[in-house]
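can u pls check wat happens w/ N-(5'-phosphopyridoxyl)-D-alanine
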Amino acid sequence: MDTAYLNGEYLPLDQARISPLDRGFLFGDGIYEVIPYYQGKSVGLIPHVQRMLNGLAAIEIQCDKTLDDWVALLDDLIAKNDGANSNLGVYVHVSRGTDTKRYHAYPENVAPTIFCFTFGIKEPEPVDRDTATSYTVTTSEDLRWKRCHIKSTALLGNVMHFQQGHASGNSECLLYNTDDQLTEGSSVNAYIVKDGVVITPIQDNQILPGITRRIIIDSIVADGSIAIEERTVTMQEVRDADEVWISSSSKEIAPIVKIDGVNVGDGKIGPVWEKAFAIYTAAKFSHS
Ligand code: PDD
């Protein structure tokens, strides 16, 4: 059985228990992270932990663990799950903790609930557009809340959008705001490529500040051979794009070949994806 971490204790995952009065359970009142480790090497560990600390501060959850404490805990959990010989994601969840009643206001003097477990993730795709996995997506107006930059455990809006894509045989659902501008996907950031230029929506309250997104932008800028812009992207531009990609810690950079049943470009994985994925793959373990 996989080893999990719950409130200071390592234990078999199927023995981890929390109270139904936990505010994470009752209200989705918590912050989470998903961090990939390939053969024991993490991708973006420090920025992931930093984003979680920012999220905890944003919703005023007091947790006394420092960035160094988190890094030690997560590396330890990976080691306990034989991470050196496998590809694992680690899920980290900090809720506001267990109250004595159901009451919306933040309770005082309640210790947060800290829960972490690992799960197997796919091997990275080959940097080869002829053999890499491609994806198809649907689209929908973004009906989530206005604080999408906070990685909250309250994911019902995301879950409902993901299900829209899933129910129609697609892997994701790309979202647009009331001005018909691309925001992100239900569990991924999004990009288009037009005439060789990569374009991704601005990082604001409408999207999660993805760590994979950050590594993609930084590594492409450092490499210098592909132009990349952060700006507003209309849905018309999405439909007219040569390539469309999505990114996340589990999907890395994933090429989209159909949107709402219509081919993106020529319906095949594009050359800019292959080049960008090579750049990302070379840089991902050194990013912090
Ligand atoms: N999803 N946007 C949303 C809404 C997300 O939920 C995620 C991550 C991303 C990509 O962020 P990152 O590159 O830091 O993984 C963007 C995670 C993996 C999940 O919920 O399982």
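The two ends are 31 Å apart (CA to CA).
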